[in-house]
Fold each of these.
Amino acid sequence: MITELVRSELAEELRSGLHRAFELREPSLSAFVPVRFNGTAQLVAMLIQPRSREDGQRQYAMVTFLEAGKADLLRRARREQRFARAHAA
């Protein structure tokens, strides 16, 4: 099962998205999570979409992994936002 294959940083978000897909029959988009690849943290999110099924068939979901670049860019942007808010007054 995919929950055994996914990187540990994504496991909780994946379980939550699969629950939503299978129990509520709704797609979900996870938060972007920093995941280390070759020593560099990249931001990764997952789009989890339930697939239609016939009666008696197994449930399936399509999981799409979305990469948004280096995690340090997000941290820098958040730090700059906090700085701008603090000095806006």
Amino acid sequence: MTQKVFFQIQLLRIKNQMTNLGKYLVIIGLIIVAIGGIIWISGNKSGWFGNMPGDIKIKRDNFSFYIPITTMILLSIILSLLMWLINKFIK
């Protein structure tokens, strides 16, 4: 196999991988938009989200400070389980 043919084959492989990457980015973007739309439409029906025990809220006259520690831990656990399930069914 000549060097020119070898580089053409490598270029085709890279093009195919980049096409797949583009598809994955579009799918991830659509998922993010869908989740945002659901949150926007539902409004404040999930009042517990961000108001859990363990979330730190400090409000003063000119100052407010908020760290949603418990909410982020719960979100991390849910997303970890979701990614584990997706990974288990893909392989």
